[in-house]
Amino acid sequence: MRDGGGLVADVFVDEWARVVATVARDFGDLELAEDCAQEAFEVATRRWEVEGRPPSPGAWLVTVARRRAIDVLRRDRRFEARLPALARARERAASPSPLVDDRLALLVSCCHPALGVDARVALTLKLVGGLTVTQIARAFVVSPTAMARRLSRARAKIRRATIRIEAPDHDILIGRIAAVRSVIYLIFTQGHTATAATELVRGDLCDEARWLAGLLVELVPGDPENLGLAALIDLTDARRPERMGPDGHLRLLGDHDRSRWNRPMIDSGLALLGRAHAHGCPGPFQLRAAVAALHSTAPSLEATDWGAIVGLYDAMLEGCSDPTGDPDPVLVLNRLVARSRIAPVSEVLVELEALASDGRLDRYPYLHSARAELLLRLGRRREAVRWFGRALELTENPVEAAHLSERIATVGEEPAGPTAEGGAGPDSV
Amino acid sequence: MKYMLLLYSADNAGPEMGSPEQAAEMQAWFAYTEALVSAGALVAGDPLQGTDTATTVRVREGQLSVTDGPFAETKEMLGGYYLIDVPDLDAALEWAAKVPLAPYGSVEVRPLMELPPR
Lengths: 429, 118
Hints:
The complex is a heterodimer of chains A (about 425) and B (about 120).
Chain A: H1 6-27, H2 30-51, H3 57-75, H4 79-94, H5 102-110, H6 117-128, H7 133-139, H8 144-160, H9 170-193, H10 203-219, H11 224-237, H12 240-243, H13 263-277, H14 284-297, H15 306-319, H16 329-339, H17 345-357, H18 365-377, H19 381-394, H20 398-411
Chain B: E1 2-10, H1 20-38, E2 42-47, E3 55-60, E4 63-68, E5 76-85, H2 89-98, E6 106-111
Antiparallel strand pairs in B: 1-5, 1-6, 2-5, 3-4
């Protein structure tokens, strides 16, 4: 539906989630809501071509989907069991302005902590984003059958365990919105780095994540972390045109032609970050967005304000530790990579080796490639090749693998000396 | 909706037998059960004797086998349950988080399968 042209495709993006959410909440049944929304859009495709688009397409679609849902329930052999749902729906239809937008209730339910993370991502893309099973399956490099199974297991849990398509009370809602942010960011990073995919950037998923982040800002504008997430996505995705060369090779930050970054998107990200900043309540997404903003506005890798970036990582580390109370090792790594731009490389290398020795990042390829880059800057090429090799063993991303292989091949030939390569964390590339 | 809260903990987890902490925990269990009762959510709930008292029965191809011990040797063992009746999963999870062993054990929340009336 989203791919099709015409009168309906234009409203699909904006109205799909609303139709599903309203019907799901009215009838307390996700599958029914999805089926009826699908049919409402199909009816619209046929009718609008002839009759023209109604003045308020969203309300039109909701009415058709609701009517359809009532028909389905009437034909249900367990009609009596469905009566409470019908009564509830009638009541709800009569009071069309709930305290919490139905779409937020739907988002929060899709990202319910009782669901597995994979299920949350798939449900959000399907029910809120309106993507097809095939599209989601392709993005996550699984077969459509496997994705359909994942979705139906998740729906079954929602139904059997009675996860309501309703927003919880305010205190719980705050935590649930944080869970929604994590899911949206996960969708974005999947699009951005595409772990097991052949293209480094899966644009569709990045676009979807940006749309979801925008929706979350629209639904809960008072939460600065929502603005921070939207800003982070804009600022990171603005570099998409330069993430890969025309030959399909990975380009590190230091090799980007910064004039080809998407300026309107950077401006949008900076504006969002400004709005978040006005709340005076920084959080992890705002801090990460601030790092991305410093990169986006720097004329070159060398002229980047690395001191400020290190400071932002310090602030993130203050608020972030794993369950044992140790600082998040990935943040520590990213901080070290930034610090290597302003502190003696040999000193940073010692700190990185200390981080490596605790073992938590053993299987994290960026630790090893960052170590290799530092060794290289110290002219210790043989050791660098060894750690690039370790990173290569661990990466699941073919584009990154190609980059590492190339690095290993050229390091043997190049004269030793400082290189212009950026560090290696996913935040810094 | 009825949910079973299955209470698991490791043998050596939780306060030591006879310690003042254990006495305080007993009070917490009574208070918790009382809270379930006053909320109208309690259907049933009991602690179980230890797994050293467990006997496992199986019938395979008509052959009865009776063995000493729980069906699976795991670090965390089922030590009790509450059966509660609440509107939805969120409510069940909220009650689960308040079970006195939650700080050191695990509470598995399982919805009951509702069979149609016969």
